Amino acid sequence: MSESKAWLGRDIRRARRQGTAAIMRRQRDRLAGLVAYARAASPYYRELYRGLPERVEDPALLPVTDKKTLMGHFDDWVTDRDVTQEKVRAFAGDPDLIGRRFAGKYLVATTSGTSGRRGLFVLDDRYMDVGSALISRALASWLGPAGIVRAALRGGRFAHLVATGGHYASFAGYSRVIREGGRRGKLLRAFSVHTPMPQLVARLNAYRPTVVIGYTSTIMLLTAEQEAGRLHIDPLLILPAGETMTTRDTDRIARAFRTTVRTAYAATECTYLSHSCAEGWYHVNSDWAVLEPVDAGHRPTPPGEFSHTVLISNLANRVQPFLRYDLGDSVLLRPGPCPCGSPLPAIRVRGRAGDVLTFPTGSGGHVSLSPLAFGTLFDRTPGIELFQIEQTAPSTLRVRLLPAAGADPDRTWQTVLQELTRLLAGNGLGHVAVQRAEEPPRQTPGGKYRTVIPLP
């Protein structure tokens, strides 16, 4: 059967009504189909899966993959022979192409992620359509019939808080919607997280969004503005995403805006991985994704215990298959059914916490900047393999860089210094000192890189 947008929406609703068995049946069939497709069209997977059974329904049979390995085998990993790393990198280097179709087919997205290592992602229409159908389903569930009517009466305006200036998944997806027109484009407006807070507040006050979607750290900064009375918007729903939240965070947002707050746990590799419920659990969209909490040896972690890491399989994207991919986060699988009644598996997340940097001003106040403002700055700077920025004093930043192969370290540093200076000055922080570290980025005991480290 053709997987049109309308069919996808119906199938998602049908799977939820039919329950866990129907959801897992879809997961097994889609995993088997994607593994077979990857074997046939990807030289990398053909070799990696040599010796496996002809049909694979159990993800535990598959070898584990990760960003570094897949990016290192990019040209053999992708299933479209016209897609190469060189072509995608050139496309991603041109800001005029954000949201346009690469090779006339695909959305290109880049990210450094929490690892600090840059990724190049190619997303096909199936990926985009499944994501759209799942978020539409989640929004309908969160708002309820009465909320949908109220949203429509208020104009249905969505404020999308995004990192601009690069091919980041959220901004690239938004740009495509705007470029290709249609009703959805008329309801969306992007607001750059790089905008100085007073300007961002003024623009949101003028727009009066019905729904606010964006990075958690930026929404927390806006919550403080709402509490102070400078921001005065009344959205029906706020959806923070991209960084781990606590119950205290969501309760604070809900009180400040007097609204419903729901969250999402996802990644560019699978933007529709999960959505939260009223009980505060993330429900994995298991008909279109596989999530495996595992220990350091990639063995299953028992329900009720936090994992060492988590493996995901995106069951939609065929051009760049992510199969048993190590996302690097620690998650806990709920031992029993969620009180909300959802048939989907429920998890809690301990990884990927975003850190806001706060600096004193000369007038006795302070200015806070989202970690995304720094992360995207480094991500769009060429010549950087890994980065780390640490606040070592109230008005001092120390920058650690690992240059990419062939890059000029001094030239790369001068670019970074210039961009950081511009970012700080634009937010009234021209007095903040930026230091170049001789040492490379440091790993945590768990092997991760914290890309932004606030003052203790």
List keywords for this structure.
Rossmann fold; GMP Synthetase, Chain A, domain 3; alpha/beta; single chain; 3 domains; globular; 14 helices; 456 residues; 5-stranded antiparallel beta sheet
Account of the protein in words:
With 456 residues, the chain is α/β, with parallel strands linked by helices. The chain has 3 domains: 5-127 and 267-349, ANL, N-terminal domain (Rossmann fold); 154-262, Rossmann fold (3-Layer(aba) Sandwich); 357-453, GMP Synthetase, Chain A, domain 3 (2-Layer Sandwich). Helices cover 37% and strands 22% of the residues. The chain contains 14 helices and 21 strands. It has helices at residues 5-18, 20-41, 43-48, 67-72, 74-77, 85-92, 125-153, 169-180, 183-187, 197-207, 216-228, 247-257, 371-379, 409-426; strands spanning 107-111, 119-123, 158-162, 188-192, 211-215, 237-241, 260-261, 264-267, 270-276, 282-284, 289-294, 309-314, 325-326, 331-333, 346-349, 357-360, 366-369, 384-393, 396-403, 433-436, 452-453. Helix 1 packs across helix 7, helix 11 (216-228) crosses helix 12 (247-257) and helix 13 packs antiparallel against helix 14. The termini are far apart. The relative contact order is 0.11.
Query: How does the overall form come out from the CA principal axes?
Result: globular
Strand runs, count:
21
List unreliable stretches of 5+ residues. none
Helix-and-strand structural type: alpha/beta
Question: Radius of gyration, Cα only, in angstroms?
Answer: 22 Å
